[in-house]
């Protein structure tokens, strides 16, 4: 394994020997979760598969094709690398899109010292029903990586990636969710945050810049549960549990994966996945129960080939409907034990 690859793997997956040492502990978590999940999935039945037709839930249709168009639109701006014109243009577009949907939008512009430069970054925070009961956080990173350092062609390593999946996919789902929530406002407060600077650097100290800043300064109302969407557009989508999420907020994992099953998604699989260092880790450290929905098995990760043709509307739809279903179930006051 080349040094570069082992470094990247170590960054994302953490210490494998430590992970192995935790296997026993994780098994216990999984067993506990499966004991709760299996009866729910079994009793949900095929007839309750579509959130939009369940009369006990509000109907908030998720338009997969429109979500895919949101993905394409972001890629049309070009490489959304902090400090570039394309990045700034995309930020303005995202602000406009969310401003037309949410009750309020805050654009948080700040600078972070990276090497010799002070990098201009923008987190975009949209709030729905600010006086609502309960609080849900939905987030994704919107920036794209300046270096295709996993590309098979070394001459591409210093070039940026388009980030159709790694960047645009999570944002696309959130923009379509924002549209659905604007048409049929939620009972809860829902905050959508688009993080900047997730994928900027070569080392951990200059990655996850937007989520770190958000978590450090967060002083808003307590978050009941949250979801981070990252790399959710893969045509061949498969979403196991992410290990940090499972360990630190098993109830939120259960909530999302169970809702996904009831929404008819086949992509959310009740299996353990690897620990992934992503924006949610910094939220979890601050006590915000935010879990990561991610398909890290993506051969085009950090390559020039992370382009829209590797993504599908259907994958975006499976994720969007799962999240909307989880919001609606929470809104209806459902506890897992009440679901039939
Ligand atoms: Zn990335």
- Element string (H = helix, E = strand): HHHHHEEEHEHEEHHEHEH
CATH first level: Alpha Beta
The small molecules bound here are:
zinc ion
CATH topology: Aminopeptidase
Please compute the radius of gyration using only Cα atoms. Answer: 19 Å
CATH H-tier superfamily? Zn peptidases
Order of strands, widest sheet: 1-2-4-3-5-8
CATH architecture: 3-Layer(aba) Sandwich
The number of helical runs is 11
**Sheet with the most strands?**
6 strands, mixed
> What is the general shape?
globular
Uncertain runs:
1-11, 13-24, 30-52
Mean pLDDT over the residues = 87
Distance between the termini: 49 Å
| Class from secondary-structure proportions | alpha/beta
Number of separate strands = 8
Number of domains: 1
Helix content: 40-55%
Report what the structure shows:
- The chain is of the alpha/beta class and 340 residues long.
- The chain contains eleven helices and eight strands.
- The chain has a six-stranded mixed β-sheet with strand order 1-2-4-3-5-8, sandwiched between helices.
- Helix 6 (164-183) links the parallel strand 3 and strand 4.
- Helix 3 packs parallel to helix 9 and helix 9 (250-262) packs across helix 11 (313-331).
- The N and C termini lie far apart (49 Å).
- Bound molecules: zinc ion (ZN).
- Zinc ion (ZN) is lined by residues 145, 166, 199, 302.
């Amino acid at each position: 394994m080349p040094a570069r690859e082992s470094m990247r793997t170590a960054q994302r997956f953490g210490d494998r020997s430590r992970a192995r040492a935790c296997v026993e502990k994780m098994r216990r978590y999984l067993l506990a979760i499966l004991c709760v999940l299996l009866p729910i999935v079994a009793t949900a039945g095929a007839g309750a598969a579509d959130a939009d037709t369940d009369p006990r839930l509000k109907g908030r249709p998720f338009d997969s094709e429109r979500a895919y168009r949101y993905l394409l639109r972001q890629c049309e701006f070009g490489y959304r690398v902090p400090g570039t014109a394309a990045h700034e243009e995309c930020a303005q577009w995202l602000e406009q899109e969310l401003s037309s949907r949410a009750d309020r939008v805050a654009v948080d512009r700040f600078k972070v010292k990276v090497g010799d430069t002070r990098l201009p970054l923008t987190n975009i925070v949209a709030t729905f029903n600010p006086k609502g009961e309960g609080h849900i956080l939905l987030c994704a990173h919107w920036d794209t990586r300046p270096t295709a350092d996993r590309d098979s062609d070394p001459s591409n390593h210093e070039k940026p990636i388009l980030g159709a999946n790694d960047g645009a996919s999570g944002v696309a789902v959130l923009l379509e969710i924002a549209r659905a929530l604007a048409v049929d406002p939620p009972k809860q407060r829902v905050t959508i945050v688009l993080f900047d600077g997730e994928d900027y650097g070569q080392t951990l100290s200059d990655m996850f810049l937007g989520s770190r800043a958000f978590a450090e300064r967060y002083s808003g109302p307590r978050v009941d549960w949250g979801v981070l969407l990252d790399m959710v557009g893969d045509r061949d989508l498969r979403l196991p549990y992410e290990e940090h999420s499972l360990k630190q907020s098993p109830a939120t994992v259960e909530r999302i994966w169970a809702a996904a099953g009831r929404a008819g998604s086949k992509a959310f699989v009740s299996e353990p996945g690897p620990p992934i260092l992503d924006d949610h880790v910094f939220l979890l450290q601050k006590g915000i129960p935010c879990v990561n929905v991610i398909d890290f098995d993506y051969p085009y990760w950090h390559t020039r080939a992370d382009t829209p043709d590797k993504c599908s509307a259907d994958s975006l739809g499976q994720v969007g409907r799962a999240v909307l279903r989880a919001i609606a179930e929470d809104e209806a006051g459902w506890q897992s034990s009440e679901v039939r």
